[in-house]
Amino acid sequence: MTVPLGRRVAAAALSVVIALASASAEALAASASASGSPSSPSATTAGGEVRGLRVPAERGAPAFDAFLGIPYAKPPLGPLRYKFPKPAQPWDGVRDATADPPACAQINDRSATKEVVGQEDCLYLNVYRPEGAEALPVVVVVPDGGLLLASGRMDHFGPHFLVAQRVVVVSVNYRTGPFGFLSLDSDEIPGNAGLKDIVAALRWVKTNIAAFGVDPSKTTVLSWSSGASLVHILSLLRKPRELFSRAVLLSGHGISPRAYTERHLERAAVVAEALGAPSNGSHQEVRRALMEASAEALLRACDDPRVRLLGLPLPSPERRNTKGAEPKLLRQDPESLLRQPEAPPLPVLMGLAGREGSFPYKIWGLGERTPGALDELLPRLLPADVLPGADTAGQLGLTGTLGPGPLPKDASLRLAQLVRDEYAAGGAIGNNTDTFIEFLGDAFLYASAWRAVGFMANASTEAAPLYLCRMAVDDAYNYGKKKYGVVTEGASHGDDIGYLGRSDRDPELNQNLSGGGVASKTLILMTKIVGNFAKGLAPIEGWPAVPSVGEVQSWPVLQVGPGSRRHVEHADGKRQPFWASVYRDLRSASSTISRS
């Protein structure tokens, strides 16, 4: 968990080694041996009774009850493929809830052959409760994999360490990729199905979670990367905002460059073409191709180079004027909602990794390119959100064809030179790996994060504070680095997840609350931070919230690591004035730039 926010400027008091962590681990291990729940726990939901299983104490974490594969919506099959999810049908008798549900249909990112896994009938969730649960808070985990891969299965994100903090955990499956975000903005393919799945899951939680020993008014939603973008967007919408009370956003937010598109019709048409529909086909031809294709064919089509070049399906606006029954969810671009909120603010814990840029540097294969080639790529690596969406443009009094997307060639070349001037004194930015990774981190996430934090801080109140955290630990449980083979020094994108959830798909992590080393102590600290936040407490004593006014350099940030230390210091924000000027200049009324 973390924020783009880097080097120590003025360390505030609070440089504390987590010496208490070892004692905490011993206490957790002691509580793990206590077992008063039956081996076949049950609960009664609005849909019927479910019978789960007892997960034994292990690796310093206590035993807990698990209820797996509870349906929260009807299977989205046939005409429901892209629709707002319908409520699940109740069942007779006792439903077996002892087996992990299938993931939603997706391409296995760990398979060299890109095999398709999961299925379209996938709208299930898991509930995990500690022993003796009564009026506890709940943490709803919305998993992420770039809006292409996500699974709420226990072997993907194990709740073991969060449950040790005396919170109930819910993990959710939701539609991703073409099933979750393709859009024709029509009643047949309205768009944003993945967002709507999360809303349906939160409605299920609000209605049913009390049966598992939870106070429904204490619902925190936690996600990371693109999933955090989805959660942030939902927090800005009036009706979804009523379904949860707090949010933990890790390495993602609603105005990040890969959180939203207004090119949804174009993207849907290219996917249909990859499926065999005519080039420049009619609306009906595109609709037919997207509705009739098999799940595997749709996934393969989204892996087509033509689709990847244009961009994968993302959340998009629903502006249709039809009078059909399909409800609209996201009616305007997320930045416009941040600027003029329709929902009251909620407490937010927001974090980024110390070196977010290491992730795109690795997965985009940039480390294999020469410095000259990297410099030539620079215009294509600029943040896509420099240009505003249509609704934000209206608020700013701008006209023209706008919307998140690539700049025209002449504008991108000019901005690329400004980047060289800022980061490399006018030279080739690819000559220095550390400098290039710093730029990537800013373009990938930090520049937009500074802007998001500014909007959120202005809206924050004493009852709805905003906390910032920066993960700098580089140790055994850094999930993102282990999964993607990132070798550069420092905490990378997704690393904090290894200090919150157990990943049985990555046994080499071997996460353990009672391990005693830096990684185990950080695991205890991170789960404690989230547990305290979910309970409505200060995440860590002495960690102040971001003030509602002030420059980026005044924002207090909890720095986690290295060496398992934690302290509060002010945000660096060294590059923030540069990016602020870029956004301001390209969005001024005198600017002639519009998206090509």
From TrEMBL:
Biased composition (Basic and acidic residues): 317-336
Keyword terms of this UniProt record: Glycoprotein, Signal
Region (Disordered): 313-343
Gene: LOC113202308
Signal peptide span: 1-25
Coiled-coil ranges (or none): none
Annotated organism of origin: Frankliniella occidentalis
InterPro entries named in the record: AB_hydrolase_fold (IPR029058), CarbesteraseB (IPR002018), Carboxylesterase_B_CS (IPR019819), Type-B_Carboxylest/Lipase (IPR050309)
Domain Carboxylesterase type B: 40-541
Highest taxon above the source species: Eukaryota
Keyword set includes Ribonucleoprotein: no
Protein name (database record): Juvenile hormone esterase-like
Keyword Transferase: no
